[in-house]
Write a structure and sequence with these properties.
47% of the residues lie in helices and 18% in strands. Helix 5 runs parallel beside helix 14. The chain has 14 helices and 12 strands. The chain is α/β, with parallel strands linked by helices.
Length: 325
């Protein structure tokens, strides 16, 4: 079934059918005739043809660091909830925590007709900033504070400081820190800074043991093993993420120590695992779904209303006190 055939059955011009399909002006009489024919024939407009006419795909590219991450899945769920309600679909690109792949996908999406791009960022390099500054497509960054485009982020320093303070408040004096690379400004550099500020408030800077590891549970376990082997007096561990904390808990148990009697542990993220592990993990809840929804709303403002003002939205957090401390 073509537009020409629809027009013939409805007794209207081809142009009238085209305007109807593209939300243009059509008289009520003609509109009703076209609608009736479409309902009777089951006609479905070609998405490709509509894209060619409008130059809009109603597709949003979403670049994410790790597709099987709890925080990422919650963020993407928030993005999709808002966009799908407005008739948009999302295309996912998994970078596997490789910043250079973020650059590749930014270029790929910009050159392959998506209406906009949402980047769940890890490390923002000079190349990232230069590319973001010159992007033709609308872009929203999640998870890192950037000046080049609109972004949604958390106060990582204050959040890490607040969760880390729970350790000395419980009398812990020899505290380990499992952190990630400081190239990741939010999770690495800023959370480490917040942790150190907390230790400084209790005069414990000299009693801090730092160990860098990856983001996975296994990397957290290995990092904790290194900490425990090098510093047998550790009685508390701050972990940059919940996944790292779950790995650390495993290492502590394998070392024959009890949580929290011998070693208290805190994480960040409030993932599902943090709520069902034993003992349940004390952690900071970050509003991952909310940040996805807010990013999607900013994107819609740019696409539907032509909004060009760069927005920087800082979200809050909530400390979930559980048995691991």
């Amino acid at each position: 079934m073509t537009i020409k055939e629809i027009a013939k059955l409805a007794g209207v011009s081809n142009a009238a059918v085209s305007r109807y399909l593209n939300n243009g002006y059509v008289s009520d009489e003609k509109k009703e005739a076209i609608r009736t024919v479409i309902e009777q024939t089951g006609f479905v407009p070609s998405a490709h043809a509509q894209m060619l006419r409008s130059r809009k795909t109603r597709l949003i590219g979403v670049i994410l660091p790790k597709i099987n991450s709890d925080s990422t899945s919650r963020t993407v769920a928030g993005i999709n909830k808002v966009l799908s309600a407005k008739g948009f679909q999302i295309l996912l690109a998994d970078t596997e925590n490789q910043p250079e792949k973020e650059i590749d996908y930014l270029n790929l999406f910009q050159n392959h007709q998506v209406d906009g791009i949402i980047l769940i960022a890890t490390i923002v390099t000079a190349k990232h900033r230069e590319l973001l500054k010159n992007m033709d497509s609308p872009v929203v960054v999640i998870g890192q504070k950037v000046k080049e485009v609109s972004c949604i982020y958390n106060d990582e320093v204050d959040m890490a400081r607040e969760i880390a303070l729970l350790l000395p408040e419980k009398g812990r004096k020899h505290i380990g820190c499992l952190t990630v690379t400081e190239k990741d400004k939010a999770v690495g550099k800023d959370r480490l800074r917040g942790f150190m500020e907390a230790m400084g408030e209790y005069g414990l800077e000299e009693n801090v043991y730092k160990e860098e590891c990856g983001f996975s549970i296994e990397e957290g376990r290995k990092g904790a093993e290194r900490l425990l082997k090098a510093h047998c007096d550790i009685d508390g561990i701050f972990c940059a993420t919940d996944a790292i904390a779950i790995g650390a808990m495993e290492a502590v148990r394998e070392a024959g120590k009890k949580i929290p009697q011998d070693i208290s542990i805190v994480g960040v993220g409030n993932t599902e695992l943090s709520q069902i592990c034993s003992p349940r993990l004390t952690t900071a809840h970050l509003h991952f779904m909310t940040r996805g929804m807010e990013a999607a709303r900013i994107m819609l403002d740019m696409l539907e209303d032509g909004e060009k003002v760069k927005k920087q939205i800082q979200l809050g957090h909530k400390i979930e006190k559980r048995e691991s401390v």
